[in-house]
Structures are given as C-alpha cells and as structure tokens.
Specification:
CATH architecture of the largest domain: 3-Layer(aba) Sandwich
Largest sheet: 7 strands, mixed
Order of helices and strands: HEEEHHEHEHEHEHEHEEHHHEEHEEHEH
Strand order of the largest sheet: 4-10-9-8-7-5-6
Number of strands: 15
CATH topology of the largest domain: Aspartate Aminotransferase, domain 2
Distance between the termini: 27 Å
Bound molecules: pyridoxal-5'-phosphate
Number of domains: 2
C-alpha cells in the first residue's frame, strides 16, 4: 500500500485538513472519507467566517450612500477582480456572478438564440453534463436551429478533434464542450477544439463548461481563447455560486434578458436581481484558501498547478491499485501515460453490484461516493449502463490523502468478494 507524500502542496496535509471542520466527521465509527467532491467539495473555515462576517458587518443591498452598502460594493468588486485573476480573464467586467452555472448558461442561451436563424447549426457533446447541453438545445429548438452531437469515443471516453472537424461549417453558430467530464474525468483538448472552430466555422462561438475542471487545474481563458466559460464555486471549496466568464465584446454586444433599470453594461446587465452577496464574500475567501496551497504568494492559479501535481499522485495510486480489484471496471482513460488528460474522478462499476447498492455499502463505512449519471445523461446512456444504475463515481480532491485512496481500494476489494 502507498504512503502519504503530498510533496507538491505548499501546506502540510494535516494543516490543510484542519481548516475543514467536516473532515473530522465520524460515520458508524469510521472517519468520513469524502470521495464525493465532483458533486461539491467541502468548505474551509475561512469561507464560513467570511460569509458570517458579511452578515455581521456588511449586510446591505448595493449602490447606497452608507457604510454597509459601500462595503458590499467593495466586496463584489474585490471578488470580481480575484475571480478574473483566477481564470486569467483580461478584465474584471468579464466575470458575471449568478445562482449557478446552469442558470447562467440558460440566460446566455436565451440571449444567443436571438441571433440564430432556421438552419443554423449548434454542436454539443455526449460527454457533457446536461447543464452544457440543454441550455443550447432548447435555445436551438426555439430558433429552429439544427443540433449536432459530437460523440465521445466509447473505448476511452475521449472527444476526438477529427470528429468535431467533420461537423464544423459556415452555418455553425455555437460549439459547447466540457473542459473535463464530471462522470469519467476526461480532459478533452479544448484549446485544439477552439483553434479548429476558428479555422473552420468563422461564425461560431465556443462555450466551455469548466465546472469539473476548475477544482483540479489552473484555468486560462485567454490561452484557450474561448468565448464563454462557466464554473461553480461550490466545486472548489467555495459557496453555492455560479460564475460566467465572457469576452467583454460579446457580453457588451449580446442582448441579455434584464429589467429596465439595470445597467446596460457588462457585467451588470447579466446579473439579474439581487445577488447572493454573502456567497460572493465566500468566493474571495475560497480563492484565498486555495492560494495558500501553492507556496507562490497569493496567486491561486499557481496554487492550482500544485493541486494538479498533487492530485496526479492520487490518480496514479488509484489506477495502480484498481488494476488489482477483481471485477472493477474504470470507464475512460486508465493508462499511466494519460494521467495528464484526466482528473482524479473515476466512473466505475463492480461486477455483480448495482451502482446504488455499492455506493450505499461504501457509505455505511463512511466512504462517500455518488452513483447514477450525475446529469451526464448521455455518458451513462452511451456506455449502456442505465440498467446497472449507472456509474459509481469516486472523485478525489486535493484534501484527500493517499491513505484514503488505499482505504477506498481496500473497501472495493472486500466488496468484490461479497457480491449481494
Ligand atoms: C461538469 C458540470 N457542469 C455543470 C454542472 C452544473 O453546475 P451548477 O450546479 O452550478 O449549475 C455540474 C454540476 O455538477 C457539473 O459537474
């Protein structure tokens, strides 16, 4: 079995984990093991304090001529700057806050469809969470545009660029793809896809769903050259809050659905109603928490490189150990050489076990994993796993340890010999 060596993280693991009250939970006499991060990560104490601090010191609506309202304005402006830095956006006005990624994508879809016409084409993928499918397919339906699906390759759950290339043309208006699959962990070549789109489909915009990618890797919207990108703070140790990045010119030019008195300029025109200011305060605290992990000062993007390196050691350990678990199938990339093209999220089945029963058995031992399709409906459907209850998803985050990976593997091995 492997030993704990979190070499790439600047903070020792016991110090890091001590910042998460929930990590000391006990279940049936077992220490809780959170392998459910792809559904939402745990929250460090600094985020909780920032949120309650907002309520005790700063609570007010925006734009007023008094102290608490001014502090709320400052809180939002600071979070917008920090989030722009985290995604490497060119300016803070390219960051839009909202309830969650799904809602922000639906709002964007309503705006985009005003520019689409009958016979225009949009492309979605079968590897995506439905939050990056339905907003565009419903908008396409309204505009009588044609929906085309970029199918993932079943043998390794990857998206091949040549398959996209064959679908791009002058009529393509949108390509929506994932930065990382929340079901099987695949990281497709997004930068390569954007280059192809620019070369072959001059009227197309590219939307990236980075909800699952962001907790595991640094994001760089300028290097990707994508038009829009969504992510959710509750997947990277923050509160329940969605973030939409858009190139400023697009956010400015597109017509958003909004109330009359609201700002006509981005980001205000995209932020409908009153925001969750306490969550925006919590977002800043989450970014400050992440920044500590890199040892490179206060830069959370540098920290995410350290997170990526550390998590690769978890991936290697899991893949190596999983090969010895009888009847365990991992869907997606499993070779040591492809570790850079996946997150530490594993969609698995265990022979003889329905996904829900296996997740429940692990849950009894304090090991938290999700089962089903996780809204990645086409992934489970294309893999033919609906009757088996879908996949069991074992998803590690930077606060997990190699000892925890070993514990999951040990539990799976024991259950492999104890079929229901
Ligand atoms: C890959 C991916 N995209 C989108 C979403 C939806 O995010 P939200 O809950 O912020 O709408 C999720 C949530 O699980 C996800 O994993």
């Amino acid at each position: 079995m492997t030993s704990l060596s979190p070499a790439a993280l600047a903070l020792p693991h016991d110090e890091l984990r001590a910042q998460f009250p929930s990590l000391s939970l006990q279940v049936n006499g077992h220490a809780a093991l959170y392998a459910d991060g792809p559904g939402g990560t745990q929250t460090p104490i600094g985020v909780m304090q920032a949120m309650s601090g907002y309520f005790s010191r700063d609570n007010a609506n925006t734009g007023g001529p008094f102290a608490t309202s001014q502090r709320t304005d400052q809180t939002i402006a600071a979070a917008r700057r920090e989030m722009a830095r985290f995604l490497h956006a060119a300016r803070p006005e390219e960051i839009v806050f909202g309830q969650n990624t799904t809602s922000l994508f639906f709002a964007l879809g309503r705006a985009l469809r005003r520019m689409w016409h009958e016979g225009d084409e949009i492309i979605v993928t079968s590897l995506d969470h439905d939050a990056n499918v339905a907003p565009w397919t419903t908008a396409a339906e309204d505009a009588r545009a044609v929906v085309r699906t970029w199918e993932f390759r079943r043998e390794n759950c990857t998206l091949a660029l040549e398959d996209l290339e064959a679908m791009l043309n002058e009529r393509t208006r949108l390509v929506a793809m994932t930065h990382a699959s929340n079901a099987v962990g695949t990281i497709p070549d997004v930068a390569g896809a954007v280059r192809l789109v620019r070369a072959r489909a001059p009227h197309a915009l590219v939307v990236i769903d980075a909800v699952h990618y962001t907790p595991h890797n640094p994001v760089d919207v300028q290097a990707l050259d994508c038009d829009f990108l969504g992510c959710s703070a509750y997947k990277f140790c923050g509160p329940h809050l969605g973030i939409l990045y858009g190139k400023y010119d697009h956010l400015d030019r597109l017509e958003a659905y909004k109330v009359r008195p609201s700002s006509k300029k981005p980001p205000g025109k995209w932020e409908t109603g009153t925001q969750s200011f306490e969550s925006i305060a919590g977002l800043s605290a989450a970014l400050a928490y992440l920044a500590q992990l890199g040892g490179g000062g206060d830069d959370p993007r540098a920290a995410m490189q350290a997170v990526r390196e550390y998590e690769r050691s978890l991936t290697s350990a899991f893949l190596a150990g999983a090969a010895g678990v009888p009847g365990l199938t991992i869907y997606g990339l499993i070779n040591a050489a492809s570790i850079g093209q996946r997150t530490p999220t594993f969609g698995v089945t265990l022979a003889g076990w329905h996904a829900r029963d296996l997740a429940a058995k692990l849950g009894e031992q304090g090991i938290f994993v999700w089962d089903g399709n996780f809204y990645a409906v086409d992934v489970v459907n294309r893999l033919g796993l609906e009757d088996a209850g879908g996949l069991v998803r074992i998803g590690f985050a930077h606060y997990n340890t190699l000892a925890e990976v070993d514990r999951v593997l040990g539990a799976l091995t024991a259950l492999a010999f104890r079929r229901p």
